[in-house]
Design a protein that fits this description.
It contains no helices and eleven strands. The protein is an all-beta fold and 122 residues long. The strands form two sheets. Strands 2, 4, 5, 6, 9, 10 and 11 form a seven-stranded mixed sheet that branches. Strands 1-3-8-7 form a four-stranded antiparallel sheet, with no helix packed on it.
Length: 122
């Protein structure tokens, strides 16, 4: 069974950048997609971006397109989420997840990491 671990969260100031990493183990990733989500206190989990491992196809939600970039490193089995121009509204727990399709649909992702906290101060 695949295991996912997110790292790279922390406390930053508005306007700063942060890169999150999601390392996957226990499964060959070539047939899957990895997605990034976040959940702020009192809010539903929100899709951010996804990348299909086989062809590097990416998908973004409109609210982060142009500010966030998802990428992967084949050799390391790692997916990154580069976040630029961070705002206080970006404060949330960030999760990565794996699923068979590159989609915004949360239910399509079967395994999730424990999450990493990002706090953006004003």
């Amino acid at each position: 069974q695949v295991q996912l671990v997110e790292t790279g969260g922390g406390l930053v100031q508005a306007g700063d950048s942060l890169r999150l990493s999601c390392t996957a183990s226990g499964r060959t990733l070539s047939k899957y997609a990895l997605g990034w989500f976040r959940q702020a206190p009192g809010k539903e989990r929100e899709f951010l971006a996804a990348i299909r491992w086989s062809d590097n196809n990416t998908l973004y939600t409109s609210s982060v397109k142009g500010r966030f970039t998802v990428s992967r490193d084949n050799a390391k089995g790692t997916v990154y989420l580069q976040m630029n121009s961070l705002k206080p509204d970006d404060t949330a727990v960030y999760y990565c997840a794996i699923g068979p399709f590159c989609t915004f649909r949360t239910r399509s992702y079967g395994s999730w990491g424990p999450g990493t906290q990002v706090i953006v101060s004003s």
